[in-house]
């Protein structure tokens, strides 16, 4: 009954941590494509191929449901996967949906016309590839009107996190926030559109200042997954064991994961 969680590297561990706490009886198999990280500078076709390969590996582990805990993969590949590639007996879900639901205060299946929402000025921080897709703006426009979204491509932040350089990651965060605030001086809310970013959420919050509500995805995804599994239990797969898999050096990845999650995480090579 395992569920798969995929990310290009370490960022999805923030989502995994939240879903494990929310669903302690469900085994999860985590797949980090560390050998090819970061995805944020890759082409859409490259991201699609890598994400499909990782998803197939998780299916082989008995995970009929796979969560793309990677905004870049979800933005660049998920729609194409769902419409052209995923078989009827499997499911692949992304992390955008719970975020959009929280911001617009309406369920994904609500197909009523777009309406005004409380927040009018939103800062979006994401990888260059995610920003380039404009996926967040597109999905938001289907559900809300009058919302100004200013997107900041945060080059280098994921690399610094993957390399274990917290000082550099926090310095880059401050630089990117300053760049965005030159274009949008007073955002009301900020979207951390990469699952790596909760690892430096404090730096984002401090740079943005008081009064800016920061939306991070992990807990939102956990609640959404719990609801989904309650409604669609048939998509909980046959896997029975929790595992951590990586395409990178398992010793190095385990060390970095343990450092950032502040508890022991042991990866296996695939």
CATH topology of the largest domain: Rossmann fold
The average pLDDT value, as a whole number, equals: 93
Sheet with the most strands, sense and barrel status: 6 strands, parallel
- Distance N terminus to C terminus? 21 Å
The amount of helix comes to 40-55%
The stretches of 5 or more residues where confidence is low (pLDDT under 50) are: none
Strand content: 15-25%
- Structural class of the helices, strands and pairings? alpha/beta
Number of strand elements: 12
Estimate the global geometry from the Cα principal axes.
Answer: globular
Radius of gyration: 18 Å
Q: Provide the succession of SSEs.
A: EHEHEHEHEEHHEEHHEHEHEHE
Strand arrangement, major sheet: 4-3-1-2-11-12
**H/I helix tally:** 11
CATH architect. name of the largest domain: 3-Layer(aba) Sandwich
CATH class of the largest domain, please? Alpha Beta
Tally of separate domains? 2
Could you describe the 3D structure shown?
- Helices cover 46% and strands 17% of the residues.
- By secondary structure, it is an alpha/beta fold.
- The protein has two domains: 3-94 and 218-269, Rossmann fold (3-Layer(aba) Sandwich), CATH 3.40.50; 97-215, Rossmann fold, CATH 3.40.50.
- The strands form three sheets. The protein has a six-stranded parallel beta sheet, sandwiched between helices. It has a four-stranded parallel beta sheet with strand order 8-6-9-10.
- Helix 1 (13-22) crosses helix 10 (218-231) and helix 4 crosses helix 10.
- The longest helix is centred in the middle third of the chain and has 18 residues, at 166-183.
- It starts with a strand and ends with a strand.
């Amino acid at each position: 009954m395992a569920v798969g969680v995929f990310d290009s590297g370490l960022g999805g561990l923030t989502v995994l941590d939240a879903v494990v706490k929310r669903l302690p009886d469900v085994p999860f198999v985590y797949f980090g494509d560390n050998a090819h990280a970061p995805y944020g500078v890759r082409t859409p076709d490259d991201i699609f191929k890598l994400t499909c390969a990782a998803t197939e590996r998780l299916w082989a582990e008995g995970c009929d449901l796979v969560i793309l805990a990677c905004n870049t993969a979800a933005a660049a590949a998920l729609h194409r996967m769902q419409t052209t590639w995923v078989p009827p007996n499997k499911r692949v879900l992304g992390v955008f949906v719970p975020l959009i639901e929280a911001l617009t205060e309406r369920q994904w299946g609500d197909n009523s016309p777009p309406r005004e929402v409380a927040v009018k000025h939103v800062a979006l921080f994401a990888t260059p590839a995610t920003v380039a897709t404009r996926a967040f703006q597109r999905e938001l426009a289907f559900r809300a009107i009058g919302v100004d979204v200013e997107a900041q491509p945060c080059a280098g932040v994921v690399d610094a996190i993957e390399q274990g350089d917290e000082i550099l990651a926090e310095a880059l965060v401050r630089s990117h926030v300053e760049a965005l605030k030159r274009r949008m001086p007073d955002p009301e809310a900020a979207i951390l559109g990469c699952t790596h970013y909760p690892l430096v959420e404090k730096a984002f919050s401090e740079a943005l200042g008081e009064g800016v509500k920061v939306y991070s995805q992990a807990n939102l995804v956990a609640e959404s997954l719990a609801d989904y599994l309650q409604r669609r239990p048939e998509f909980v797969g046959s896997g029975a064991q929790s595992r951590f898999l990586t395409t990178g050096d398992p010793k190095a990845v385990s060390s970095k994961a343990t450092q950032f999650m502040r508890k022991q995480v042991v990866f296996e090579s695939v």
